[in-house]
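Task: sequence design from structure.
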């Protein structure tokens, strides 16, 4: 098969591992910087044209021919990146995650609304436009301490723990003065700064890790000094992770959860989960699992996994 990895940087761990895994299984692989593509949008013959002008200004343009693509779209380039994925879909090329599902996952408010409608357990969350509703926002999530999140934040950035009502009101007021959209969430104190990351591929959890926050930090993100180790999920945690991925319409997803007194609660579903941390912690070759999924889907012809059929928004 001809497999394209849509990534801006071939040297990134996840991109490199996916390429190695695909080549090890005998596939022809190419890393394509999606920002160096443009699209010919015609009904008769839609195409994606690639011109690597950074490497060689005189290099001729070429139309890309792929059997499957693996999107690794950066959050800052979601709009253009998903447009390229959508163009491949118009051409009948299989995408590991469909463009619409990636777009959903990048909108934190929309994704939480989809998860809520699907009955996925989450921390109590509130959202408003005006600071006049600040008191109600805080009360409805159970009062302080609360988590205040920027909708546009990634990797733990734009997430604040407000331990008092006064602090929460100040943070919310400051964010709204910047015209930033925010969520206010219940603080799951019993999680103790730990969270779970489950890698779901084709409706099955293939690897999992527990991430522990650095001393004095409430966010367990590895980018913020957290540590990780492999973990055996409970049956309920596995079901919750699969349910969340399917609700979002994602066939490859990193589902982040907290262990609460009422069971696992989902805090985020990532459409381009990093592989480095979970592979090192779990010892599972996740990249190989992704390639095997592509092979199974390709053998199945036009049939797609059940997660494609569950989302309506």
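Answer:
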């Amino acid at each position: 098969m001809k497999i394209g990895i849509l990534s801006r940087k071939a040297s990134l761990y996840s991109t490199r591992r996916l390429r190695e895994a695909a080549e090890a299984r005998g596939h022809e692989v190419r890393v394509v910087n999606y920002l160096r593509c443009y699209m010919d949008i015609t009904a008769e013959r839609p195409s994606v044209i690639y011109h690597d002008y950074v490497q060689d200004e005189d290099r001729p343009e070429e139309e890309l021919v792929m059997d499957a693509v693996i999107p690794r779209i950066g959050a800052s380039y979601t709009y253009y990146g998903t447009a390229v994925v959508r163009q491949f879909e118009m051409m009948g090329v299989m995408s590991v995650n469909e463009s619409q599902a990636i777009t959903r996952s990048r909108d934190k408010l929309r994704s939480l609304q989809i998860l809520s409608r699907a009955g996925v357990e989450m921390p109590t969350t509130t959202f408003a436009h005006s600071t006049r509703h600040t008191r109600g926002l805080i009360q409805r999530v159970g009062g302080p301490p609360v988590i205040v999140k920027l909708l546009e934040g990634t990797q733990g950035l734009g997430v604040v723990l407000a331990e008092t009502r006064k602090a929460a009101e100040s943070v919310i007021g400051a964010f709204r003065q910047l015209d930033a959209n925010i969520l206010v969430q219940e603080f799951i104190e019993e999680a103790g700064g730990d969270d779970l990351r489950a890698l779901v591929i084709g409706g099955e959890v293939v690897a999992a890790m527990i991430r522990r926050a650095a001393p004095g930090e409430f966010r367990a993100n590895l980018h913020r000094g957290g540590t990780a180790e492999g973990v055996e999920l409970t049956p309920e945690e596995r079901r919750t992770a699969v349910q969340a991925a399917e609700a979002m319409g994602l066939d490859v997803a990193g589902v982040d959860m907290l262990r609460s007194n009422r069971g696992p609660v989902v805090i985020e579903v990532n459409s381009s989960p990093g592989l480095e941390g979970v592979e090192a912690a779990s010892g599972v070759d996740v990249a190989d699992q992704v390639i095997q999924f592509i092979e199974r889907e390709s053998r199945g012809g036009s049939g797609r996994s059940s997660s494609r059929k569950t989302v309506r928004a």
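The two ends are 32 Å apart (CA to CA).
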